[in-house]
């Protein structure tokens, strides 16, 4: 049986502090029929050098939407059947994460899939420590609850680690040029077009850095506000940039 050709796409900007963690979690996977594309937004640190040291393909990036789309275009040229879009500060849990995720997508006949999350912190360089911060755990628990509650709705949500078949990506025409919420907008658009969406669970939760909350605080990060606005139908495009204090690549 032909094995799925998986393309892993990581948008980056100055991610030398985190990229090695996601890279190490990828190369430890039992599933090996993949290629990694790092879409870099003109990093001034060692992000590109680190990506290249792992043998990853580096392509021009920009905003997360631009980076994901640029990476996807190169992945399609490579012949990818399935695309995994993952943030640079995420860590895949366990060596069978990819194997189990692909298996569950096939079993459920999913075209687009999101994952659940668990918070972590980096106390020292590359030292991954599960976060015991009650606020962070509460925020992530609420996020996971929202992902599951909206899974079967007309407006399913996904973020930070998400799968899409090449066919679904092409039909949806990629990620919209949004400042925020481009990931969930993609899942909503896919659902409208008849593609099957689901939250996969057998692979386990991905580890997600709480750096934006620790740097900005819950209120200033404005995540809950943007999720509410997105569900109400407001899409924040690049033309809104001057009116918004929140930027993904701050």
At a glance:
This protein has helices at residues 19-27, 47-53, 64-78, 97-108, 134-149, 166-172, 182-192, 211-221, 223-231, and strands spanning 6-12, 34-40, 57-60, 82-86, 90-91, 112-115, 117-124, 127-130, 161-165, 178-180, 197-200, 206-209, 236-237. The longest helix is centred in the middle third of the chain and has 16 residues, at 134-149.
Structure notes:
The chain is of the alpha/beta class. The chain has a single domain (6-243), classed as Spore Coat Polysaccharide Biosynthesis Protein SpsA, Chain A (Alpha-Beta Complex), CATH 3.90.550. 39% of the residues lie in helices and 24% in strands. It has helices at 19-27, 47-53, 64-78, 97-108, 134-149, 166-172, 182-192, 211-221, 223-231; strands at 6-12, 34-40, 57-60, 82-86, 90-91, 112-115, 117-124, 127-130, 161-165, 178-180, 197-200, 206-209, 236-237. The strands form three sheets. It has a seven-stranded mixed beta sheet, sandwiched between helices. A four-stranded mixed beta sheet has the order 5-12-7-8. The chain starts with 5 loop residues before the first strand and ends in a 13-residue tail after the last strand. Mean pLDDT is 87; it is low at 241-250.
């Amino acid at each position: 049986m032909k094995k799925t050709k998986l393309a892993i796409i990581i948008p980056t900007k100055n991610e030398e502090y985190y990229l090695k963690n996601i890279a190490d979690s990828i190369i430890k996977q039992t599933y090996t029929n993949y290629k990694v594309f790092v879409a870099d937004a003109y990093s001034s640190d060692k992000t590109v050098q680190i990506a290249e040291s792992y043998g990853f393909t580096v392509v021009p990036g920009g905003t997360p939407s631009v980076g994901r789309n640029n990476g996807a275009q190169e992945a399609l040229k490579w012949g990818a059947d399935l695309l995994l879009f993952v943030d640079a500060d995420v860590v895949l849990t366990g060596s069978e994460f990819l194997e189990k995720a692909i298996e569950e997508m096939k079993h459920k006949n999913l075209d687009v899939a999101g994952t659940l999350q668990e918070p972590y912190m980096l106390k020292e360089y590359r030292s991954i420590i599960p976060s015991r911060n009650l606020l962070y755990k509460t925020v992530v628990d609420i996020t996971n609850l929202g992902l599951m509650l909206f899974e079967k709705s007309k407006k399913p949500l996904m973020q930070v680690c998400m799968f899409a078949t090449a066919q679904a990506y092409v039909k949806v025409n990629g990620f919209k040029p949004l400042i925020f919420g481009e990931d969930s907008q993609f899942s909503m658009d896919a659902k409208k077009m008849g593609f099957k969406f689901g939250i996969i669970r057998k692979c386990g939760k991905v580890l997600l850095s709480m750096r934006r909350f620790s740097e900005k605080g819950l209120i200033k990060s404005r995540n809950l506000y943007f999720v509410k606005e997105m569900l109400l139908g407001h899409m924040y495009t690049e033309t809104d940039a001057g009116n918004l204090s929140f930027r993904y690549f701050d």
